[in-house]
Design brief:
about 240 residues; alpha+beta; 17-stranded mixed beta sheet; 4 helices; about 45% strand; globular
């Protein structure tokens, strides 16, 4: 089988397309293995959809299937255009609902599904936390530096991704991701959750530069209640994989 490896702000994905929708959790674990597979944070499979340009199956590298991935949405949009599966302005179906995306060269902006606030701000672990669902649940704090032990505790307690942030002229975000069970180089939905925390509780602007662990610079903006995530996408390679 042929697969493509993509990086979106340091978040890496194995991507391919096929005609048949099915559960591919075992394949995701195999291909995403960094020692005996291609190696990636997640796997994305594009399949036909009756109304949208396509539908995706998204898998974390442990085989779990979250409803949404912000950086994954940008990577798969670039792949879809490059492979003639969708026009430059496209719509596709995710587990969280319909996603819009616009591809301009290496830059991709995704129009995300509506976000919701899961709970009012709360105190835990010596910090104040904000709790949003931006397609998947995220807790966000600005009070502490990245703490792996606390991240694991918060992830288990709230079944959420965990974000440690700072905000001055730009928003810096470090994310511990469910399904990867560790810090990733970037998390699109985490950056959006951090943006919402600033926008709603720190009188932040409607458009912010966001910098994840990878150091790449992205843009998150809100128009009405619609959220957008924009940044560069990099096709890394395409290869034939044997033994799967």
């Amino acid at each position: 089988m042929h697969v493509s490896k993509y990086s979106a702000s340091g978040n890496d994905f194995v991507i391919f397309h096929t005609l048949v929708k099915q559960n591919r959790s075992a394949l995701a674990r195999q291909l995403c293995d960094r020692h005996e597979g291609v190696g990636a944070d997640g796997m994305i499979v594009l399949v036909p959809h009756e109304r949208c340009d396509f539908e995706w199956e998204f898998y974390n590298n442990d085989g779990s299937q979250p409803a949404m991935c912000g950086n994954g949405s940008r990577a798969c949009a670039h792949y879809a255009l490059a492979n003639g599966l969708a026009p430059a302005s496209m719509r596709f179906m995710s587990g969280a609902g319909e996603i819009g995306a616009v591809v301009e060269g290496s830059m991709v902006e995704s129009e995300l599904t509506p976000a919701s606030e899961v709970a009012a701000p709360f105190e835990a672990g010596g910090a104040r936390w904000f709790f949003f669902d931006t397609g998947v649940p995220h807790v966000v704090t600005f009070d502490l530096p990245f703490d792996l032990a606390l991240a694991k505790t918060m992830r288990e307690t709230y079944n959420a991704n965990v974000n440690f942030c700072t905000y001055e002229n730009a928003l810096h975000v470090r994310t511990y991701e469910r399904g990867v069970e560790g810090e990733t180089q970037a998390c699109g939905t985490g950056m959006v959750a951090a943006f919402l925390s600033v926008y709603r509780y720190h009188d932040g602007p409607a458009c912010l530069e966001v910098i994840p662990t990878s150091g790449e610079r992205l843009q998150v903006r809100i128009n009405g209640e619609t959220l957008f995530l924009k940044g560069a996408v990099k096709p890394v390679f395409t290869a034939q994989v044997q033994g799967v």
